[in-house]
Amino acid sequence: MSTSSFEVIPPSHAAPAAAPAPSLPTVEQIRVLEVPLALTDYERVLDWVDAAVAAGAHEYVCVAAVHTVMESHDDEALRSAVAGAAFTVPDGQPLAWALRALGHEIDSRVYGPELMARAMERATRTGQRHYLYGGRDQSALFKLTLRLRQRFPGLRVVGGYSPPFRALSEPELDAIAADINRARPDIVWVGIGVPKQEKWMAAMRERLDAPVLIGVGAAFDFHAGLVPQAPAWMQRNGLEWLYRLKQEPRRLWKRYARHNPRFVMRFARQWAGERRDARA
């Protein structure tokens, strides 16, 4: 495992030892099908990340679409990993709609690729250091790094690794943790897909010194230019799944056929139950 193609940058100033650690902003969460989702927006998430980095926190953030919510019902380990996050943002447009249907104010979803892009842009001003864990292979990860640096001049990407598509041994996990800790990132971006990335963050959190880990799924492929993103109008209307299905039908058709109808039916029951309780 090597990060030789990545820039080596000395760590930024450490805060004086006597300085009090700032408290992290409170993030209100509402359960949709028993999965807590944050009532937040891009700027408040990024402000929370800045505060967590300043505090030297040890947290991770999940980014959830309908797939994550429904897999959490079927996979106890994923459910536990999501529950252990500092918070989970509603990445999928249907989840933002669900929160509004339950009577909560939310301007828009917090889309993982957009969150990553905004964080990178902000980092060109703050100097935050980033590590990229994921991608299709190491060459795709290098392409992602180059494109991010071209798009955000001055961005500090201090390391990266694309793991193999198999379970990793304890020695391998130890080596990965050592590599990330040597790079001293402020944020580790994890792009290995649901449910692997949530389980990885939960399992690795205590081994890593980085203040924040964020799982962003397909954002690596989008930003590397390997997979096109749905047009804005499809994203606004909750049709991104249809666009992605057209791009990768063999991989995704079972996911959408299984999860989408179940989500609609189960959320309809939750919505009806909450309205009934409100009238009682």
Describe the structure concisely.
The chain is α/β, with parallel strands linked by helices and 280 residues long.
In order across it, which strands form the biggest sheet?
A: 4-3-8-7-5-6
Low-confidence parts: 2-21
Mean of pLDDT: 89
> How many distinct folded domains?
2
The secondary-structure element order is EEHEHHEHHEHEHEHEHHHH
Ends apart, CA distance between termini: 60 Å
Described by the principal axes of the CA atoms, the overall outline is globular
Summed up, the helix count is 12
Instruction: State Rg.
Output: 19 Å
* Estimated share of beta-strand residues: 5-15%
CATH topology of the largest domain: Rossmann fold
Largest sheet: 6 strands, parallel
Which percent range fits the helix content? 40-55%
Q: What is the correct CATH architecture of the largest domain?
A: 3-Layer(aba) Sandwich
Count of β-strands: 8
Top CATH class of the largest domain: Alpha Beta
What is the structural class? alpha/beta
Describe the structure.
By secondary structure, this protein is of the alpha/beta class. Helix content is 51%, strand content 14%. It is globular.
Key terms:
single chain; 280 residues; alpha/beta; Rossmann fold; 2 domains; 6-stranded parallel β-sheet; two-stranded antiparallel ribbon; 8 strands; 14% strand; globular; disordered N terminus
